[in-house]
Structures are given as C-alpha cells and as structure tokens.
Amino acid sequence: MDPHPEIHRSENQPLAVFVDFDGTITTRDIGDQVVMNFAEPGWDEAIDRYRMGELNVRDLWSFEIGLLRREREAETVAHTIGIAEIREGFAEFIEYSESHGIPVEVVSSGMNFYVDAILDANGFGSLARARPTVEYDEHGFGVMVMAGGLRDCGMTAMCKCDRLWRLRRKGFRVMFVGDGVSDECVVSQADIVLATSSLREICESKGIDHVPFETFHEVLDVVKARGAAASANAG
Ligand SMILES: [Mg+2]
Question: Which whole number is the average pLDDT over 167-177?
C-alpha cells in the first residue's frame, strides 16, 4: 500500500468524479435566474461591482442571497424546476458511474433549495452533493450557511478543493467537470479536467490541461477511457 497515495498518483488508482451544478449539469445557470427573478432590488448593482473587480464570487453570492426572501422560496423552487434543463447525456453518465462503482459528487456554490429540488425532480435524488444551505434571518432574508462540514471559501463560496482532497487522500484520482468561475480554484487541483463555457477560457489562460465538452456523452467517453485502467488493474 502506498503510504502517500495523494502524492504518487497513477492510472492504477480508482477514479472519482466531481461535477459542478449550475451551467454544467443544467444547461444554464439556475442561480443567476433565481437572483434575477426573485431577489429584492440591488442585485444588479452588485453584479456591476463584481464585474469591476470590487467583489469576488463569494462576496457577490453572499450579498445576493441576502436579497432572497423566505416567503418566496416555494415559488422560486417551482420556477427553477420548470426552467432547468439537464445537459444531454447526464443520465447515461450517472448510470455508467454507478454501475462501475465510480463515486460521483455534485459540488455547487449554488443553493440547497434549488439544487436539491432539480436533482430530485429529474430522478437524481440519490446523488451525493455538497452545496451551501440558505437559512433566513429574523426578517426573513437569506443567509448563506455551510452546513454538514462544508468549508467556506473566501473566493468562491463553497470550497470545492476541500471536497476533492477528501477523496484524493483516500487514494482516488479525481476528475472535475465544470463550466465557470466557481470552478477556478479546483481545476488547478484535479487530475483530469473537463471544461465547457467560460471554464475553457480560464483553463486556456492558465495553461491547465483540459478536455472541452458540450454534452455528458463526451464526459462519459473520458470516464470510460480513464476509469478503465484502474478497473483492469484491479481485476
Ligand atoms: Mg457552474
């Protein structure tokens, strides 16, 4: 047994896959839609400040969650289930991973109420997931909480790197699948990166090796190719 599996990674190690939610599992960013349709006024000025570099992802997200109201949560959930479209091939990717014992965890900076509702409504209720929880203060305004041992990240809200390292320390090779700025830290840590949308540009600008994708069929092809080495060696 290798005493330092997190350092000496090889194709013989079992594969684990981490998947972002907004804009990755769903074809568009549901969190953005929640804010635009249900937040109290002020969210657009915060986005301007984010674009000017005055706020980072975590600052922006935390501010916007503070503009959500408890009394609108049920209506918000119903709306997001209605608009969420699951990216093509996701069901096949999950089915293959489950049947081959490859752990998959959804890692999202987006909020529990819509992430959970959309996964459940689309038949993915049993998928492991790590995402912040929205609680409400005494005035009914949202507060972002990291429950269940999740680590708060000062840059991107929920620390995806911490989730990844939990499995890497157990000897897994880790694949990350994502689309945007909340994945910026974790792609520098993953062994295999699949990137779409603005995450491709981030990877290109930082020189991070990645496989571009549009559907989960392409993700599944990589899982089959890279996961097979460990299965063959194990068998
Ligand atoms: Mg995303």
Answer: 96
